[in-house]
Amino acid sequence: MRLSNILLMGTPGLYDGFDEEYVCPILDEDRVVDELENKMKEGGVIVDYHGCDFFPERWFHIVFVLQTDNSVLYTRLEKRGYSIKKLQDNVQCEIFQILYEEAMASYKPEIVHRLNLDQIIKWIEEWIKYNN
């Protein structure tokens, strides 16, 4: 199987402006879907994004929602220099499992899985054990 890494950050025309409150670009979701459509048809593509409700269900065989401990998340975002509001909103999103709920509402529940770092490490170790 071929896996592709498609980097869209900085791609011209994919943004609608800039959010001053959160200090980040505003993504034009329709343009992103248009940009990815042909690449997704080829298969073997991993999409990494902090939301999913605008991606077509037909694109995915499996969806992983990565989760972390809130104290780890808080420290990580604080080190990035996030504003208090942006930091608190991100932690609340994790507490209330907003992205997991979004994924469950957007795709067939049987393809949506929650993972944390410990589970990912365990999976990698098992894969190495059985594939060497």
From TrEMBL:
Keyword annotations from UniProtKB, A to Z: ATP-binding, Kinase, Nucleotide-binding, Ribosome biogenesis, rRNA processing, Transferase
**UniProt GO MF annotations:** AMP kinase activity; ATP binding; ATP hydrolysis activity
Lineage, top-rank taxon, reads: Eukaryota
**What protein does this entry describe?**
Adenylate kinase 6
Q: Which GO terms describe its biological process?
A: rRNA processing
Is Transferase a UniProt keyword of this protein? yes
GO terms for cellular component: cytoplasm; nucleus
What organism is listed for this UniProt entry? Answer: Monodelphis domestica (Gray short-tailed opossum)
Q: Which Pfam families match?
A: AAA_18
